[in-house]
Amino acid sequence: MTFKQILIIQLLTALLFFLPYSSAVYSDQNELLNLSVEDLLNIEVISVAKKAKSLNDSPAAIFVITQNDIKRIGATSVPEALRLAPGLDVARIDANKWAVSARGFNGRFSNKLLVLIDGRNTYTRAFAGVYWENQDVMLDDVERIEIIRGPGASLWGANAVNGVINIITKHSTDTQGGLLVAGGGTEEQGFGAFRYGGMINNATSARAYVKGFKRDKSPHQSGSDAGDDWDKVQGGFRLDSQLTTQDNLTIQGDAYRSIINQNTTFPQSTPPFQNNFNETVNAFGGNILARQQHTFSSTSDYSLQFFYDFYQRDEALFIESRHTVDIDFHHRFAFLGRNDIVWGLGYRYNHDNFQADNIAELHPSSRNDQLFSAFVQDEITLAEDSLWFTIGSKFEYNDYTGFEVQPTARLMWVPHHQHRLWAAVSRAIRTPSRLEHDIKVFAFVNPPQHTLPAVAIVLTGNPQLDSEQVISYEAGYRTTFINNLSIDFAAFYNDYSNLRSMHSDTPFLNPRTGILERPLFFSNNFKAKSYGFEISAVWQMLDWWRWDANYSLFKIDLDGQPAEDATGGRSPQQHVSLRSAISPMQDIDLDIIFRYVDRNRARGFFGTAVIDGYVSMDLRLAWRPANDIEISLVGQNLLAAQHLEYRQENFTQQTEIERGMYGKITWNF
Amino acid sequence: MLTTKKTLSLIAFLLLFLSGLNQAWSRSVEKQTVLAVLTLNIARFTSWPEPAFNAEAPLNLCVFGDNIVQQSFEAIDNKKANNKTIHIINLSRLRNLDRCQLLYLSKLDRSRLKPLLMELKTRPVLTVGENMEFLKAGGMVGLEKINGKMQLSINLHAVKQSKLVISSRLLKLANIVDLPARVH
Questions:
Q1: A54-63, A454-463, A469-478 — which is least confidently predicted?
Q2: Which whole number is the average pLDDT over A209-223?
Q3: pLDDT for A5
């Protein structure tokens, strides 16, 4: 017998052992109906994490990652948790960098995904994306992560082009008491977290936390060390107060500091025309947020939110600091019986400063930007409990491209409570980043050939750069028709125009360096059409055994351009994930996660890097010797000693991700 | 170093091993199923004031919750409660609640729960929820899992305000609280 045959027999035998128990669960309900209340109050009851696929009846491709999911896959960072979601492309570039995007266009500097943590926008104007290594939360205090694929711009504004991620932490009344987490292993060399929550008075609860970790270096393909180890310390708090029956106040904040090591390659004008060195990046920052919520009635409320966010990164490329102040107002009310209206106003102020004196410069080096926004959305009930039409738009005025309109129209139809269908058409834009606007950077230098001198490619910002735009058509179907199985399907067709492209100008001789400089400008000449679908299913096979499966297909047509010429990152055509969550006993969990990621290309100053498709597996085994203590053992990326997931667009070497194991203990008190 | 083959066989063996270990689970019942059946029983022990609905009309049991919650209530659709047929209405939005005689509210944001229960306060709608917070916010019946068993709590103050009557047979089994909705 071959190995495969043996394996199949083993799996089948295991299944046969399980099957008899499944019938016991199904017949329960009929027996229960004949029981008296006394008996019902006396039976042993268990809670099963039968996750609901859809949060509610939103006419959008929504996926929810719960606290239980985060715990059971052994995620140690937000991007790792995001790997659970269909249609998201999550790739680890090295120990401290990530590429995350929805429905294509991935890269470290991907710019079409909006990420919010408790209502705080984590987008940086610098490159119109997210520094994932700056964003962290106390994972045990996360209530859920909502992932919306497709445009969310009509509510959230520019940059919510291909998706929105909402990380929502628990209310502080749900985090009372202490929590201590400690662990370590091969890649996750050491980590710890401590949180304590209490009541300040009858109406006010609060918590505070501190966490830290150290992550090991990754290797290059050859096995040599990439020098990308890093560590981080972060602390924060949250306070929730019920001021009156109608008013709630939330105040929260975080502060962090991390030491990030990286191997950097800069071009230079003299032989050998490139300079490779190790640097230590100091990154620190913090934020504070306050939100007041006033409730008029169950159909009417408003919220007023303020946040301030600061970060600084000291990199060889430049030292960047950024201050963001944001004020946001939302008001919801019912109107004429059938309309549920939400409208809001927002203002954001950004002050940044770039100190660049190596290969890059920014003009001006410091800038103040403002953003004014307003939105209105009306959900009209066309038929009670079955048909809704939503129409709305965001209106923005920004300092880069002026006035922008981002409308959406959505329809939700529930013919039967087990079948939900929706469709949407939306327009979203991505405003230019500060770097696209104002940077001048030596991207690379071609060494002299024969009689030709060295040519430096100088990437040059374009103040006339316009917003990228998409018109997106989406449709979806959710069903729970088969008992214990829920299926969620979403398909999309995105029509992009004004996408960022590059065009080169005539080279000229720089008399100072004696080399030819060829400027490369950003422009808006690319068009693309992308389409695909995502399907996710949850099967609660038994009360104690659940399967989650996702499949996504993504295709892009770059308007006749060969894929190699596309600027920015790309995404694999297919993703598959299969997860099995087993609790054979109430105090033991076993989790197995398989992922398949299709072949991909990364594009950058280095040219094109081909990333082979890969399969990876994570395993987690947890045991709760007492109610409040959990000991777990996690293996990550177990199928290969090391593999490549992505390559950053510029200035760093290709780095691979290693197999890792860690142990963890969690104590609630 | 673990090879792919070895890892896969290890998993298969683990599954085989685990298949013998599910005794604890097969005896107990899943919570959501019990919640639905308990809600049916609570309806059986409740009488609504006369004008709440006419004699032939069914008893409308409105369910607000995710697909798992809705699925669990399917089993009690069309069952009888004191000569009335239970009719399950799965709510997608918290609108048009006048048609409900019983409202089962699965998890709802604090900020929305309280005003909703305030508005229902004097109407003959029996509100059933999942924990003590629900009663504190002005809900009538709370079903909470405590030490592996369901505990029934009833907020008498809220029940009386709505002119509903819950049978003393049920009250005897419940943990009685008498909470006016908290101002703070």
A1: A54-63
A2: 95
A3: 63
CATH of region A46-275+291-668, choose from 1.10.10.10, 2.60.40.1180, 3.40.50.1110, 2.40.170.20: 2.40.170.20
CATH number where B83 lies: 3.40.50.2300
Angstrom distance (rounded) from CA A91 to CA A106: 9
| Residue B4, domain member (yes or no) | no
Strand bridging mode A485-504 / A360-362:
unpaired
Give the predicted TM-score (pTM) of the model. 0.90
Nearest-angstrom CA–CA distance, A150 and A426: 9
User: What is the pLDDT confidence band of residue A7, given thresholds at 50, 70 and 90?
Assistant: low
Rounded Cα distance between A43 and A40, Å, is: 6
* Chain A interface includes B177 (CB < 8 A): no
Which residues, given as ranges, of chain B have pLDDT below 50? 1, 23-25, 183-184
Minimum distance, in Å, between the CA of residue A191 and any CA atom of chain B: 24
Q: How far is residue A150 from each of residues A100, A163, A423, measured CA to CA in Å?
A: 14, 5, 12
The parent domain of residue B110 ranges over: 29-177
| Interface residue A382 vs chain B (CB under 8 A) | no
Report the C-alpha gap between A214 and A200 in whole angstroms: 33
CA distance B146 to chain A (A): 9
What residue spans define the domains of chain A? 1-45, 46-275+291-668
Q: Is residue B50 part of a domain?
A: yes
Q: How far is B168 from chain A (nearest CA, A)?
A: 13
Between A29, A246, A293, which is nearest B33 by CB? A29
Number of domains forming the structure of chain B? 1
Does A13 contact B at CB distance below 8 Å? yes
Contact A477, A536 (CB under 8 A): no
Among chain B residues, the shortest Cα distance to A583 is held by: B22
The model's confidence at residue A19, banded by pLDDT at 50, 70 and 90, is very low
Tell me, yes or no, whether B1 lies in a domain: no
pLDDT the model gives residue B178: 78
Contact call for A35 and B37, based on CB within 8 A: yes
Give which of B19, B70, B143, B153 to mutate to test A binding, by max A Cβ within 10 Å: B19
Span A151-160, pLDDT tens digits = 999 999 988 9
Q: Is A357 exposed, middle or buried (0-12, 13-18, 19+ CB in 10 A)?
A: exposed
Would strands B141-146 and B126-129 be described as parallel, antiparallel, or unpaired? parallel
Mean pLDDT on A316-334? 96
Looking at residue A131, the DSSP 8-state letter turns out to be -
Is A248 within 8 Å of chain B by CB? yes
Residue A16 has pLDDT above 60, yes or no: no
Cβ neighbourhood burial of B6 (10 Å; 0-12, 13-18, 19+): exposed
Residues 82-141 of A with CB under 8 A from B: none
Note whether A44 contacts B33, CB cutoff 8 Å.
no
| Residue range A299-314, pLDDT digits in tens | 899 999 999 999 999 9
Indicate the average pLDDT of chain A.
90
pLDDT grade for A570, boundaries at 50, 70 and 90: confident
Does residue B149 form part of some domain?
yes
Write down the pLDDT at residue A23. 37
pLDDT at A546 over 60: yes
Q: How many CB pairs under 8 A join A and B?
A: 200
- Chain B stretch 131-170, residues whose beta carbon is closer than 8 A to a beta carbon of chain A: 145, 148-152, 170
Question: What residue in B sits closest to A32 (Cα-Cα)?
Answer: B37
Q: Do A48 and B11 touch (CB under 8 A)?
A: no
3-state helix, strand, coil in chain B (%, to 5): 40, 25, 35
Contact (Cβ atoms closer than 8 angstroms) between residue A219 and residue A655:
yes
Distance (Å, whole) CA A324 – CA B30: 48
ipTM score of complex: 0.83
